[in-house]
Amino acid sequence: MARRPSSPPHRPSPADMQVVSVRIHPVKSTAITPVSSAHVGLAGLSGDREWMIIDENAAMVSARELPALFHMHAEPTEDAGSPAVVLSAAGASYTVRADGPDVKATMFTRPPMQVRATSRSASQWLEEVTGRAGLDVVWCSNPAERTLNPEFSRPDDRAAFQDGYPVTIASLASLRQLNEWIEEAGGDAVSIDRFRPNVVIDGEVPFAEDDWATVQIGGVRFRAAKPVDRCVMTLVDPESASLAKGKEPIRTLSKYRTWDGKTWFCHHLIPDTEGEIGIGDLVTATP
Predict the structure, then answer these.
(1) pLDDT at 86
(2) What's the start-to-end Cα distance of the chain, in Å?
(3) Do 239 and 257 form a contact (C-beta atoms < 8 A)?
(4) Which listed residue, 12, 128, 175, 272, has the most CB atoms within 10 A of its CB?
């Protein structure tokens, strides 16, 4: 059995939990796209992080180094029979489709995974809206090629360009507790958007998700892979105009939610079945 990160003592699971928000991020690190429902495949939610921005070395570029991506919107579509995405930012839009050659993404997974390039380069458009040259867009043509961390997954698990695992779930009960701690220290509350989850649920018990082993959302079953260790991307409010970094929520998480040398919020899930999930679905979990 895979080792799970050590965690705080067991808490009882809430009796009633419900989905209150479903989100996809068509291009990794770009703006959140709320949806009322989504199809869950073995590689995650349909349309979620299936595209990625790379640099001239075919290495991933995320909002960690280019925060302007938070203000770029993306809409998955189809063009001339190929998967396509419409990028929008600064009042301009640009469409690319996955009809180019297969290339290797050199700095995203180990070993590098195969991705699909586009025949119509977005480099010039991306430079105009972000100020950075040498960028382009690729599509995940084969999620099954990607190998997940074997410590928390099975050999046939897969994902597109998500961070580590196919689906991320967040609890508003946990967020309320986090914001209570932040405000007690004189800080300003943060929104769930800082954590960029796919599924947001509400219930009564904060951080009950720490102890989950399996989760059912509507008719779809998931394994709880591990909690999510948080990085500096959470220091940026994705809705702010300045995209300046603050101290929260990492400062407070480091006080209350630190173990194994990292800070933790949200949980990674791996689908065991496929199907539709949506707002209003009941959520049940087992430890």
Answers:
(1) 98
(2) 14
(3) no
(4) 175
Same domain, 264 and 168: yes
Q: What is the DSSP string of 16-46?
A: -EEEEEEEE-SBTTS--EEESEEEEETTEET
Question: Do 74 and 30 form a contact (C-beta atoms < 8 A)?
Answer: yes
Full residue range of the structural domain in which residue 195 is found: 12-44+143-287
The total of other beta-carbon atoms located within 10 Å of residue 217's CB is 27
Nearest to 210 by CA among 44, 16, 9, 19: 9
Within this chain, do residues 219 and 95 fall inside the same structural domain, yes or no? no
CB within 8 Å of 18: residues ≥ 6 apart: 201, 202, 203, 280, 281, 282, 283
* pTM greater than 0.85 (yes/no): yes
3-state secondary structure of 235: helix
Token output for 209: 């998700």
Give dist(CA 267, CA 253) in Å, integer.
15
List pLDDT tens digits, range 17-70.
Answer: 999 999 999 999 999 999 999 999 999 999 999 999 999 999 999 999 999 999
Strand, helix or coil for residue 108? coil
Rounded-to-integer distance, Cα 259 and Cα 261, Å = 5
pLDDT digits (tens, 9 = 90+) for 228-245: 999 999 999 999 989 999
> pLDDT, tens digit, for every residue of 202-220?
999 999 999 999 999 999 9
Domain's final residue, options 139, 168, 188? 139
